[in-house]
Amino acid sequence: MRLCGWEIVGGRPPAKKYIFLCAPHTSNFDALWLFIGARGLNMRPRVLIKSTFHVFPVKWLFNALGGIPVDRSSKSFGLAQQLVEYAKSHDELELVITPEGSRSYRKFWKTGFYQIALAAEIPVFLVSVDYPSGTIKIAQEPTPITGDRESDMAHIRKYYEGVRGKYPDQFGPITLRPERKKAGS
Q1: Domain boundaries, the chain
Q2: What mean pLDDT is predicted for residues 74-95?
Q3: Residue of 13, 25, 69, 122 with fewest CB within 10 Å of its CB?
Q4: How high is the pLDDT of residue 172?
């Protein structure tokens, strides 16, 4: 990383189970830098990857890197709930989530990280990938995920102020998708 002009600020979080909320995610290289840095910190992060990428010949690479294949063709498969159960049944979990869910511009962040953190009661550590400075910054204190979405997101927005991805125009606003109205409400 140093040879390529990158550095890591911060270190391994003081927890055995956590979510790394990593943004901005505007390039496939974001994951590469994060994995190289994580290995340098003796971490084994798990990351969600489209199942279409889990094919020969690169399947072995994504598995070795901790990839969890995700079928995004179905909206009703309950991935967040599956990850909550996974987190509750394991003593250790280093889960990396890119809240945009894509490398292209998104109006809203996906809410899975928020649902998982609340339901599994695991901390969220913010990670930024800033291309102009060549810095991956890992927060050493967990971000509060309290259930008060507006307050929690204000804290997250402040952390990512001034951070620029490889393609800055693809990093959308830091806001969660509005909650859906429940039937009968």
Answers
A1: 2-170
A2: 81
A3: 69
A4: 75
